């Protein structure tokens, strides 16, 4: 039996008359790379913020890492990592200082912070840059470092919101290598993106259109369902069908 680490049932977020997230239901398993795909404005970020305990749902149910998103948000925050669309480290601190700061926030011991910092810097090949200000690093290195910090404390789940926006294709591929490594260590990766080619890197994906999940499955399953080898075509067919149903 696969261990369920995220479970939602008809989860919704409404702002006035606008249904940003409209009754979504799905499950995510331990160690899975789960893609949350859709165009900008589809509701991906709003849904993620609810799951992270950063935004209170309007209705429905959801459990994250065994905790209720309505009643146990602080416990959720202690068991997850999070990387937002905007770069989340401190530009005016060095790489080492950022690691020490976030390690302390995560409740790690000084010894553990020191040992893991050294290991991480070596893994990323940043030995010569460890005492440089983060603000001086190229964007690609900043993004990879931000991801590494988000899982510094070995959380059960890491939420990544459009993590590869603005970086070149080579850096994007390197970033996904870090994601694979985290998943192999048993960390569940929940990633939002509007890059349809990144769907191929996920174990399963859900595709959102106007706040609703219109399709869910592995990339191969969805391409077979829609009779295409192209994930862009899958999304185009979904969006077109959703528009017809709303009219």
Automatic annotation (TrEMBL):
Domain ABC transporter stretches: 6-235
Q: Which Gene3D superfamilies match?
A: P-loop containing nucleotide triphosphate hydrolases
Q: Where does the signal sequence lie?
A: none
In terms of InterPro entries, this protein maps to: AAA+_ATPase (IPR003593), ABC_transporter-like_ATP-bd (IPR003439), P-loop_NTPase (IPR027417)
Q: Which UniProt keywords apply?
A: ATP-binding, Nucleotide-binding
Q: Name one GO molecular function term.
A: ATP binding
Q: Which Pfam families match?
A: ABC_tran
Q: Which PANTHER family match?
A: ABC TRANSPORTER G FAMILY MEMBER 20 ISOFORM X1, ATP-BINDING CASSETTE, SUB-FAMILY H, MEMBER 1
Listed name of the protein: ABC transporter ATP-binding protein
Q: Which species does this protein come from?
A: Flavobacterium agri
Which classification does the entry list for the species? Bacteria, Pseudomonadati, Bacteroidota, Flavobacteriia, Flavobacteriales
């Amino acid at each position: 039996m696969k261990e369920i680490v995220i479970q939602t049932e008809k989860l919704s977020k409404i702002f006035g008359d606008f249904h940003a997230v409209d009754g979504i239901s799905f499950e995510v398993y331990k160690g899975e790379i789960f893609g949350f795909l859709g165009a900008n404005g589809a509701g991906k970020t709003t849904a993620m913020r609810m799951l992270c305990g950063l935004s209170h749902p309007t209705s429905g149910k959801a459990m994250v890492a065994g905790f209720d998103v309505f009643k146990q948000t602080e416990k959720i925050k202690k068991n997850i990592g999070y990387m937002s669309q905007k770069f989340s480290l401190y530009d005016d601190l060095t790489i080492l200082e950022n690691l020490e700061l976030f390690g302390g926030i995560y409740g790690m011991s000084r010894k553990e912070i020191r040992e893991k910092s050294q290991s991480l810097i070596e893994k990323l090949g940043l030995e010569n840059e460890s005492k440089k200000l983060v603000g001086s690093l190229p964007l690609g290195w900043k993004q990879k470092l931000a991801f590494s910090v988000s899982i510094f404390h070995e959380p059960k789940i890491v939420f990544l919101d459009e993590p590869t926006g603005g970086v070149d294709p080579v850096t994007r591929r390197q970033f996904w290598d870090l994601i694979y490594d985290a998943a192999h260590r048993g960390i569940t990766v929940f990633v939002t993106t509007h890059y349809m080619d990144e769907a191929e890197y996920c174990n399963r994906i859900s595709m959102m259109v106007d706040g609703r999940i219109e399709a869910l499955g592995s990339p191969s399953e969805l391409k077979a369902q829609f009779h295409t080898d192209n994930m862009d075509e899958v999304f185009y067919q979904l969006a077109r069908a959703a528009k017809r149903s709303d009219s």
